[in-house]
Amino acid sequence: MATVTIKNVWKYYGETPAVKDLNITCPDGSFVSILGPSGCGKSSTMRMLAGLEHISAGDILFDDQRVNDLAPKDRDVAMVFENYALYPHKTVYENIANPLRLRKASEDTIKARVTGAAKLLEISHLLERRPHELSGGQKQRVAIGRAIVREPKLFLFDEPIAHLDAKLRAHMRGEIKHLQRSLGTTMIYVTHDQLEALSMADYIAVMHDGELQQWGTPAEIFNHPVNAWVAGFVGEPAMNFLTCDIKGQGDDVLLRHSNFEIPLLPGQVRQLNGAAQAGTARMGVRPDALSISMTRPDEAAMQGEIFVNELLGGDMLVEVQLDDCRIRVKTTPEFEGKPGENCFLSVNRDKWHVFDAGDGHAYF
Amino acid sequence: MASRDVVSYDTPLSRALKVLAGLFLALYLVWTLLPFFVMFVSSFKDLLEAFKLPAVGDWAGITVFFEFTPTFKHYTSLFTENSFGTYILNSLIAAGGSAVISVIFGSLAAYSLSRVDFRGKQDLFFWIISTRMAPVVAVMVPLYAIFRSLDLVGTLPGLILAYTTFNLPFAIWILKGFFDNVPFAIEEAQMVDGSTRFQAFRSILPLVAPGIGAFVVLCILFAWNDFLFAAIIGSGGAKTLPVATRELVQPQNIQWGSIMAAGVVTTAPMMLLGLVIRKYLVTGLTMGAVKE
After folding, report:
1. Chain B residues closer than 8 Å to A82 by CB
2. Angle at A239 between CA A237 and CA A242, to 5 degrees
3. Could you give the 3-state DSSP secondary structure of residue A166?
4. Range with the lowest mean pLDDT among A83-87, B47-51, B73-77, B100-104?
5. Among residues A184, A353, B116, B289, which one has the fewest Cβ atoms lying within 10 Å of its Cβ?
6. Contact between A225 and A362 (Cβ < 8 Å)
7. A79 touches chain B (CB under 8 A)
8. CA triplet B245, B246, B247: central angle to 5 degrees?
9. Separation of alpha carbons B198 and A245, rounded Å
10. Chain-wide mean pLDDT for chain A?
11. Pick from B49, B71, B93: which residue ends a domain?
12. Rama region for A209: left / alpha / beta (φ>0; ψ in -120 to 50; rest)
């Protein structure tokens, strides 16, 4: 158990910065997910935490201990690798026992811990097998077993379930979350899958281009993204963006698009704070904050043409051509519009966002 | 998992080719095995029996070849009149010693070249390979001069050193390929689990065992079968089997029986080695280690 502090950390590969001035504090016992697309620096961060990469600048602290110059073996972390990295020539039992053997634990302790971990992960019947005789999900459990058997200060999980099929992934999400809760060990979990981060983590650090974009709880990240990039990356189906003009009209402030004019809510006008008065901005709205109908519900509704319908089981996703852009709307499977027909969209203004047209930061 | 077999369908051409391939393989088998067979059988024959051959075209006369009383006298004379026991030992020490040294230094060097990036790495690697590009005879004279001034001529350490000079680049070259195929993650996992850098290196050695096995065989074969180094560098104090066999050809008589027996003594251990180590050469230990 440890509080992990990443302080002004930089990582350079030659001239290229992979991690830029990163600052994160992971509270003791929390489940923190580092989320970002490939090449965002999340894996470099994890490898610096494990001690597999040198830190170019800055400090990493476990509790109050600076670990920059400690070898991996002295950091007391356990890591699960994306490709499992099991020892192919050893049995499952020996794979899980390996960290204990390296720490010269007694044979009794090893046996007790390995069988305990195997029972927890439901792989007791596989202990005599070798990795190549296991399925992907089983290998993944063995890799986790190897990590938990030692009761380390910190767990590092590097996209551990990325290679599993969708159903097993959903199952393992629950298992890993439950495991972390029951062990109470601080866990840092790197993933590019926003669903994994949202569903499992206590806190999410969203990274892009080596920079921390936003730190917050899953709800904060989802409901109050700090910029257009985070808003677009988190959430599936992705948020719709429309470039609009901001126009004052009497006491109202309107978002004006070639297709519609919709006034902001009074609170939102204050949040805009005159900053973007009479300029352009990007309006962002998630597909489930829009509603679609075949008849005009009110004057403010947007008017478009259905481009395509996608039935996603319990939901239907409708792509609508709105002048020169397309936006996606989530609706119920009962929706009867056909491609090519005219339709109307209205926005739930409590759930829309306005971002600066330049640097993309969120006004609200 | 899908079948790895290439699907093929029978056509008249493919059937004809199959027959031809069978014929070719049969001839090839005879071509490669017959000399060994003649050597083996002749080593148990008296000199007169050994030269009893049927006339050309007389296929029935082939039985003459098998009409002999087996004798072990050539073998006994190898070990009594000549000191073949010593020569076998010399061969073993020279081949084994150079194989062991080459494996140790070769795997360390190959691992470094595979895992560590440093300036001039490509050039260094090319230089290591390039030392094998000159034929042995081209460097023989300078090498002899160097070895003589170091008092290594005619000694086993000298011979081991000579073989190692030629085996080591080969070891590095083969083993680097095998280390390249071992995922970094396995060592990294090992280090996070609590091992040092060196322990991590040792932990992946079982994964390159097929490479080490293959190399050891090739290295031993090179040293065991070598004549040139053995004749020049090892001459005198470190006589090996090929040189000793060559010395059975004397100006006044050629001891065919002993030469055949010496041939069997020289060949048999290598064939056994090949059989023993075969499973190493074909086992891919990394299978299933890492999700590709």
Report:
1. 185
2. 140
3. helix
4. B47-51
5. B116
6. yes
7. yes
8. 90
9. 63
10. 91
11. B71
12. left
* 3-class secondary structure per residue, chain B: CCCCCCCCCCCHHHHHHHHHHHHHHHHHHHHHHHHHHHHHHHCCCCHHHHCCCCCCCCHHHHHHHHCCCCCCHHHHHHHHCCCHHHHHHHHHHHHHHHHHHHHHHHHHHHHHHHHCCCCCHHHHHHHHHHCCCCCHHHHHHHHHHHHHHCCCCCCHHHHHHHHHHHHHHHHHHHHHHHHHCCCHHHHHHHHHHCCCHHHHHHHHHHHHHHHHHHHHHHHHHHHHHCCHHHHHCCCCCCCCHHHHHHCCECCCCECHHHHHHHHHHHHHHHHHHHHHHHHHHHCCCCCCCCCC
**Could you give the percent of chain B with pLDDT greater than 70?**
93
Output the domain CATH number for residue B147: 1.10.3720.10
ipTM score: 0.81
Q: Which CATH architecture has domain A240-356?
A: Beta Barrel (2.40)
**Does residue B3 fall inside a structural domain?**
no
Find chain A residues with C-beta within 8 A of B289's C-beta. 85-88, 131-132
The DSSP bridge pattern shows strands A186-191 and A31-35 to be parallel
Query: Which chain B residues contact residue A105 at CB under 8 A?
Result: none
Contact A87 B291 (CB under 8 A): no
Q: What is the pLDDT of residues A75-100, one digit of tens each?
A: 999 999 988 899 988 999 999 999 99
Among residues B95, B94, B103, the alpha carbon closest in space to that of B212 is found at: B103
Instruction: Mutate one of A70, A86, A157, A168 to test the B interface: name it (highest B CB count within 10 A).
Output: A86
Please check whether residue A136 touches B, CB under 8 A: yes
Q: Which of A18, A27, A88, A86 is nearest to A47 (CA)?
A: A18
CB contact under 8 A, B206 and A89: yes
How do residues B113-139 score in pLDDT, each as one tens digit? 999 888 999 999 899 888 888 888 888
Domains: count for chain B: 2
What does pTM read for this prediction? Answer: 0.81
CATH superfamily of A4-233: P-loop containing nucleotide triphosphate hydrolases (3.40.50.300)
- Given an 8 Å threshold on Cβ–Cβ distance, is A83 in contact with B291? yes
- A178 to chain B, minimum CA–CA distance in Å? 23
CB-nearest to B289 from A52, A88, A146 is A88
Q: Are strands A352-356 and A16-26 parallel, antiparallel or unpaired?
A: unpaired
